[in-house]
Amino acid sequence: MAIPPRLIASSSSSCTTTSTNNSSIHIEEGLASKFWIKFRRESVFSMYTPFIISLASGTLKIDSFRQYLSQDSHFLKSFAHAFELAEECADDDEAKLATSELRKGVLEELKMQNSFVQEWGTDPGKERTVNSATVKYTDFLLATASGKVEGVKGPGKLATPFERTKVAAYTLAAMTPCMRLYSFLGKELQALLDPEDDRHPYKKWIDSYSSESFQASALQTEDLLDKLSVSLTSEELDIIEKLYHQAMKLEIDFFLAQPLAQPTVAPLTKGHNPAEDRLVIFSDFDLTCTVVDSSAILAEIAIVTAPKSDVVQSEAQIARMSSADLRNTWDLLSGQYTEEYEQCIESIMPSKKVEFNYEALCKALEQLLDFERRVNSRVIESEVLKGLNLEDVKRAGERLILQDGCTSFFQKIVNNENLNTNVHVLSYCWCGDLIRSAFSSGGLDVNVHANELIFDESISTGEIVKKVESPLDKAQAFNDILKNYSNDRKNLTVYIGDSVGDLLCLLKADIGIVVGSSASLRKVGSQFGVSFVPLFPGLVRKQKESDGESSPNWKGLSGILYTVSSWAEIHAFILGW
Predict the structure, then answer these.
(1) Where do the domains of the chain lie?
(2) Are the C-beta atoms of 169 and 221 separated by less than 8 Å?
(3) Of the listed 89, 178, 406, 429, which one is catalytic?
(4) How far is it between the farthest Cα atoms of the chain?
(5) In this predicted model, which residue has the larger pLDDT, 121 or 488?
(6) What is the DSSP letter of 12?
(7) What 8-state DSSP symbol labels residue 452?
(8) For a tag on the chain, would you pick the N or C end, based on fewer CB atoms within 10 A?
(9) Where does the record place the Thiaminase-2/PQQC domain (predicted)?
(10) Any idea which fold 31-257 has?
(11) For residue 120, what are the CA distances in angstroms to 61, 68, 205, 400?
C-alpha cells in the first residue's frame, strides 16, 4: 500500500518527538505539565485499575469503598504532614502561604472523607489495618519531605535557604502527581455520569474530585512545584523527575491494593487459565504498530540505494532505475493511490446509514480487493522495489520506530508464562522480512502473515508474492488461523488495527480495538452501522452491565469497536500494570 509523500514527511517528523530528553525541559514551559505528559502512561494504568473501573460504573461493593476510605484517610494525614514540612522549608512568604493553603485544602479533604465514612455506615473511630501499598507510599512522602533523598542533607543539616528550598521542591515533586491524578480521574469519571440520574452511589466522591475547587488546588500545586524548581540544577531536576515518576507508580500500586470481591472487566487476562483458555492477539502492522507506513520505508530504501543518473551500472548488476527516476515514479504511484482510494471508498458507501450487517459489509468491501490488486500489480510493473538488498531491508526493520508502548506490550504478553497466548500480525506490507526484523529487534518472534518480496541471492527481483491484499484476505487469514487451533481450549480473540483494511477482522474478533483516528475507517464503519466507543467508557459500561456479579461476556460481530489513543490503554486493559 502506498502513501503520499506529504504523509511520509509528516509521519517522519512526528517520530522525532516521541522521546523526551531531560536536558530539553525548560522551567518556563511548566515543569509539572511536562512531567504529567511524559508520565501519561502511568495515569492510564491508574484509570484502568479494577477499583477505578468498578467505582466509575457504580458497581463497587460498599465494603471495598469503605476499605479504600480507610486507606485514603491514613494517606491524607501523611499528605497534610508533608505539606507542613514543605512549608517549613519554603524560602519566601509567598511559597509558605501557598503551601499553607494547600495543606488546609487537604485537611478539608479529610473532613470530606469523614463525612463519606459516616454516610456509608463506617465507624470513623474504627481502626483498619493499613496495607503495605499505603505504608510504602506514605513512607516515601514523609522521607522525601524530611530531606531523606539520595544526595540531600538531612533536615537538621540544611544550612542555607537554597538547600531548604530544594527539599521543599522535592516534596512537591512527590505530592503533585497525587493532586493532578485525582483531578484527572475526577473529570474522566464525572464525564461518564448521567446528569439526569442521581442514583450513582459514588456521585458525591466523583463530584468532589471533579469540582472546580479541587481542579484549582491541583493547578496551584503544580504552579508551586514550578516556582520552587526554578533555581535547581539539571542534576537536581533529574531528582525531581524521578520523585514525580515514583509517586505516579505508587498511585497505581495504591489503587491495585484495594480489595475487590467482584468480577471485573479489566484486566482481561485476570482469571486466565492456560490449561483451559487461549488468548489470541491479532494485530495489523502499518500505522497500528508503526509510526510510518512500511511502503514508504521500502520506497525510501530503494531510492537511497539506487544509482545516480550519471553512474554507469555494470552488466553484473541487476538493472535499476536511477534514484531520481525512482522518486518520480514513487510520487506518481502515491498520488494515484490516494486519488483512487478515496474514489473507491466513496463508491462502496451506502446512500444512507444502515443497520450493522457483517455480510453486507463484506460484500461492499469486495471492491477494495480489485483496487488493492491493481495497486500491487502497478508497483510490480513499475519495478520500484527491484534491486533491494535483503540486508538493507532487515536493517531498516530493526531501526523502525514503533508506536510508544507497542513493543513492551508484546514483550510482556509473549513472555508471560502464566498466559497461553498466541500473537499473529496480519499486514498488507509488501515484505514480511521487514516486519519480522522490526519485532526481532525487541526480542520477539511473532507469527507474520503478509506479502513477501522475492529475492534472488539477497537481491529483490521486484516481484511480490501476494498473500494479503484486502480486508477479505485478512478476514480469511483470521478464520484460517483459528480453524488450525485444536478445540481443547476456549479461544478469546482480540484484534488491534487502524484502517478500513482491518475492519472485518476488528468486527469478527471478540474484542476489536482501533488505534489512531483514521477518518476513512470511521466513515465506512459508521455508515454500515458500526459503533466506535472509547475503550475506557466502554469498559465502565460493560462493568455496569455485569452489575459486578457476573464475569463479562465478550463476543464478536456485536458491531461495537473500541477506540484508544495509545498502546498504554491496550496494555492496561489486557494485562494490567
Answers:
(1) 31-257, 277-309+319-575
(2) no
(3) 178
(4) 91
(5) 488
(6) H
(7) E
(8) C
(9) 50-147, 166-255
(10) Heme Oxygenase; Chain A (1.20.910)
(11) 11, 12, 12, 54
What CATH number does domain 277-309+319-575 carry, 3.40.50.1000, 3.40.50.450, 3.30.470.20, 3.40.50.1980? 3.40.50.1000
User: What values do phi and psi take at 491, rounded to 5?
Assistant: -85, 140
Catalytic residue among 109, 241, 251, 372: 251
For residue 25, the model assigns a pLDDT of 43
Neighbouring C-beta atoms of residue 272, cutoff 10 Å: 17
pLDDT of the residue at 261:
87
Question: Are the C-beta atoms of residues 201 and 127 closer than 8 Å to each other?
Answer: no
Question: Exposed/middle/buried for 523, CB within 10 Å: 0-12, 13-18, 19+?
Answer: middle
**Residues forming a β-bridge with 283:** 425, 496
Cβ pair 167, 152 in contact under 8 A: yes
Residue 251 appears among annotated catalytic residues? yes
Q: Which of 484, 472, 466 is nearest to 508 (CA)?
A: 472
Is residue 339 scored above 70 in pLDDT?
yes
Calpha distance 61→438 (Å, rounded) = 45
Residue from 464, 430, 436 nearest 450 by CA: 430
Dihedral sign (CA 565, 567, 568, 570): positive
Put residue 387 in one of left, alpha, beta given phi > 0 → left and psi -120 to 50 → alpha: left
